[in-house]
Every structure is written in structure tokens, then in C-alpha cells.
Write a structure and sequence with these properties.
Elements (H helix, E strand, L loop, with lengths): L9 H6 L8 H9 L3 H7 L3 H17 L4 H29 L1 H13 L1
Helix pairs in contact: 2-3, 4-5
Length: about 110
């Protein structure tokens, strides 16, 4: 089973905190096993990253007219997805899902 052969994250081993790339390997394994939703939950930028690299490879072969600009926009979009997902993941971990749910329940009851 491939799950037993994943590379460890040096940043997480050193700091105990997930890095922005944590989850990428597990997301890829879920994707190749057909678990699309689980893949998105683990690393939302995986599919856009794959698309960006495929487009870049096609651009190298076919030299699209605006290919470099499109690759730049895809790169920026991927960076945004990665960083927003990272922020949300840590915001939810810090606040705690139970705390957020109890606050929401308190607002509903008032």
C-alpha cells in the first residue's frame, strides 16, 4: 500500500505545524484511488496544480500565443488557493470546531 511509503514533512517534523504543502501526497493518493472529495479536502490546490503543469507542458510543446501569461495567472491562482486553504485550516484548528459551533448555537438561541 502506497500510504505506508509517503515522505515525511521536514517542516512538520521540526515544528509540529503543518506546512502549506502538507496533505499533497495523501490528496494525490486519494485522487488516483478515485476519491475526488477526499482529495479536495486534503489539499484543495492539487487538481489546479495538475492542470497548471499539464498546460505548461502543452505550452512548451505547442507554444500557445498567450501561454506564458495564462501560466502566470494559473500560478498566482494556485498560490492563492494554497495559502487560503492553509489559513482556513489553521484558523479552524486554533479556534476549534466545537468553539465555533457553540458560538453559532448561542447566536441561534438568542
Amino acid at each position: 500500500e502506497l500510504h505506508n511509503h509517503l515522505l515525511p514533512c521536514f517542516f512538520k517534523q521540526t515544528t509540529g505545524i503543518d506546512c502549506p504543502g502538507c496533505g499533497l501526497q495523501r490528496a494525490f493518493l486519494e485522487l488516483i484511488n478515485g476519491n475526488f472529495i477526499q482529495s479536495l479536502e486534503l489539499f484543495p490546490a492539487l487538481i489546479p496544480l495538475i492542470f497548471m503543469f499539464l498546460f505548461a507542458f502543452a505550452h512548451i510543446l505547442l507554444n500557445f500565443r498567450h501561454g506564458a501569461k495564462i501560466i502566470l495567472y494559473l500560478f498566482i491562482s494556485n498560490l492563492l488557493i494554497i495559502h487560503i486553504a492553509y489559513f482556513l485550516k489553521h484558523f479552524i484548528e486554533i479556534k476549534g470546531v466545537k468553539t465555533l459551533l457553540s458560538q453559532a448555537q448561542g447566536l441561534i438561541n438568542h
